[in-house]
Amino acid sequence: MNNYVITIARGFGSGGKALGMRLAEELGIACYENRILALASKMTGKETAELIEIDEKLRKGSLHSLLRKIPGRTEPAAVEKKFESDEEIFRCQCDIIRHLARTESCIIIGKCADYVLRDFGNVVSLYIEAPRRYCLKRVTQRMHVDEDEAAKLIEKTDKYRADYYKYYTNGNYWTNPVNYDMTFNMERVGEDRCVALIKEYLKIRFGEDVIKQEKADNPSLYTFAENEE
To answer: Which of 4, 58, 130, 196 could be stapled to 186 by a disulfide with Cβ–Cβ 3.0 to 4.6 Å?
Structure first.
């Protein structure tokens, strides 16, 4: 196996994004979230000549550098709008995700990545959730809002993610455990034990040397991943 991919779907406020970034640091691989959407949006809005240039860079394997140029955010990002489909951006996003899965070890958060990569043998898909009280506490602390506002943000964001997933997966539902290798209740398991269990599962799936190899091959990748949303 040349590379592996971890996909993470998560409820808003569950700590799934933080877990992905922690895993990226410990494994020595990159973590991608909204940079994929930003690059897809940028590509679909480009003139033909610029698209050809980007496509050539993708074929030459410099997708990582393209994604790195897109500014990231560190604060939580709630979604308060209703879901509206954009087929062109989603198709482009899928191309980027598949390219990543073929060329580098990485973590991809959200973006229906588990579904997009369902036929890839080098993928581990995870779902992270937590009880509402746990999510409320995280959102109030990280976004500096009261509990009522946090509850609204959680409800609207999870509704958006569910609608997004259902639309682009032809009716599948986001929380279906069959979609994933493993699901975690972050309140019960905790981030440290989640990380330990996922690393052990990677060894079971891909061999004992997979973690050691990635850290040796990519000692500084997380300097990019730590700025991901």
So the answer is: 130
Burial letters for 117-131: b for 16+ Cβ neighbours within 10 Å, e otherwise?
A: beeeeebbbbbbbbe
Per DSSP bridges, beta strands 182-185 and 106-109 are unpaired
Q: Which CA distances in Å does 76 have to 36, 89, 173?
A: 17, 22, 23
Reduce the DSSP state of residue 71 to 3 states and report it.
coil
The count of domains in the chain is 1
Residue 129, SS3? Answer: strand
**Neighbour-count burial of 104, counting CB atoms closer than 10 A to its CB (0-12 exposed, 13-18 middle, 19+ buried):** buried
**CATH, residue 111:** 3.40.50.300
Is the pLDDT confidence value at 196 over 90? yes
Residue carrying the six token digits 């539902």: 173
The 3-state DSSP class for residue 159 equals helix
> What are the respective helix, strand and coil percentages of the chain, to the nearest 5?
55, 10, 30
The pair of three-digit structure tokens given for residue 52, joined into one six-digit string: 């050809």
DSSP for residue 177: G
Query: What domain range is 44 assigned to?
Result: 5-225
Using the predicted structure, report yes or no on whether residue 158 has a pLDDT greater than 70: yes
How far apart are the C-alpha atoms of 84 and 94, rounded to whole Å?
Answer: 17
* Beta-strand runs (E) in the chain: 5-10, 30-32, 106-109, 123-129, 182-185
Single-letter amino acid, residue 29: I
